[in-house]
Amino acid sequence: MEDYEVEPNPIKKNIPNEWPKKNAEEAENYLYSNQEVVDHPEHYQGTKYEVIDIIEDFKLNFNLGNVIKYILRAGKKDNQHQDLKKAMWYLEREITKEKKV
């Protein structure tokens, strides 16, 4: 597998560096204060379909679902190049898995 310089776990957490919360209840309220961000993040929205609906409709496994997710969100959340590298990382992982079968 080629080296794409992708972190072993390319998923980021949406927790700010300056975590101001004192207890679990306050932290939960902070994380879920805007339910749209949790349920329907803008960077996963298309003009007609949400990424999760496409992944579920095609019954994609974890790796292939992430390939689609990162391709469709490329340039909407983070750096487009980074999202495409993440998609390649998951695709390479799936290809390697298939070769072992």
In short:
The chain is mainly alpha-helical and 101 residues long.
What does this structure look like?
- With 101 residues, the chain is mainly α.
- It has one domain.
- 52% of the residues lie in helices and 0% in strands.
- It contains 5 helices and no strands.
- The chain has helices at residues 24-31, 35-39, 51-57, 62-73, 80-100.
- Helix 3 (51-57) packs antiparallel against helix 4 (62-73) and helix 4 runs antiparallel to helix 5 (80-100).
- The longest helix is centred in the last third of the chain and has 21 residues, at 80-100.
- The radius of gyration is 16 Å and the shape is extended.
- The model is unreliable at 6-13 (pLDDT under 50).
Q: Could you give the topology of this structure?
A:
Blueprint: H1 24-31, H2 35-39, H3 51-57, H4 62-73, H5 80-100
Helix pairs in contact: 3-4, 4-5
Give the fraction of residues assigned to helices. 40-55%
Total tally of structural domains: 1
Task: Please give the alpha-carbon distance between the first and last residues.
Answer: 16 Å
Helix/strand class: mainly alpha
Largest sheet: none
Radius of gyration: 16 Å
Instruction: Let me know the average pLDDT.
Output: 75
Q: Give, in order, the helices and strands.
A: HHHHH
Beta-strand content: under 5%
In DSSP terms (H or I, runs of 4 or more residues), the helix count works out at 5
**Which assembly state applies to the chains in this document?**
single chain
Low-confidence stretches: 6-13
Overall outline: extended
Total number of strands = 0
